[in-house]
Design brief:
The chain is mainly alpha-helical. The protein has one domain: 4-Layer Sandwich (Purple Acid Phosphatase, chain A, domain 2). Strands 1-2-3 form a three-stranded parallel beta sheet, with no helix packed on it. A two-stranded antiparallel sheet has the order 4-5. Helix 2 links the parallel strand 2 and strand 3. The longest helix is centred in the C-terminal third of the chain and has 16 residues. The protein starts with a strand and ends in a 6-residue tail after the last helix. It binds manganese (II) ion (MN).
């Protein structure tokens, strides 16, 4: 059994399918991890999302900044930018199903057996593993909640840009999200 970790697909399904052929991916025994940014920029975003979702338990997915942007826009927050290729998802017949599935995905994945953590951009050096998992859970709980719109309404923005354990509320959630998803904060 092998575990393959694949980075930013950005809506490029055809190269993914070619890659899976090349590594001779065997669904009955191999696992695929996707490190976020499944969609946007590329021209097969809708099909990419449907494909990853169809992999079920064979795929472990975490959210990247583009995935969160799509979720925010689909909830009526944020605006589409030039170069975004998200409209086919937003107008798809299975949009709600895809968005509900995406919203259930975590910001961070930890595999104890492999002693490995996957995040989209990184982990700040001041966070322990326990901090990392706890902070990810805080955002994930909000994402799955009925009050997720509060999060999307305040998700955009680069402040606070310094981690402080005393941060609370939506500022805290935005800071955690930015640390997981924006490598600028980690430099
Ligand atoms: Mn990204």
């Amino acid at each position: 059994m092998s575990t393959y970790v694949i980075g930013d697909l950005q809506g490029c399904l055809t190269p993914l399918v070619q890659l899976l052929e090349q590594i001779q991916y065997r669904p009955e025994q191999d696992k695929l991890w996707f490190a976020g940014d499944l969609i946007n920029r590329g021209h097969e975003s809708l099909e990419t999302l449907r494909f990853i979702k169809s992999l079920g338990d064979n795929a472990t997915v975490i959210l990247g900044n583009h995935d969160l942007h799509l979720l925010a826009v689909s909830h009526g927050f944020g605006t589409l930018k030039r170069g975004d290729t998200l409209t086919e998802i937003l107008s798809a017949r299975d949009r709600d199903e895809l968005m509900d599935w995406l919203r259930q995905q975590p910001l961070c994945h930890y595999d104890k057996t492999l002693n490995t953590v996957m995040t989209h951009a990184g982990i700040p050096p001041c966070w322990s593993l326990e901090d990392t998992l706890t902070f990810a859970k805080e955002v994930e709980t909000k994402l799955k909640s009925d009050t997720v719109d509060e999060f999307f309404a305040t998700m955009y923005g680069n402040t606070p840009n310094q981690w402080d354990n005393t941060l609370t509320g939506l500022d805290r959630l935005r800071a955690i999200t930015n640390y997981f998803n924006t490598d600028a904060l980690l430099r």
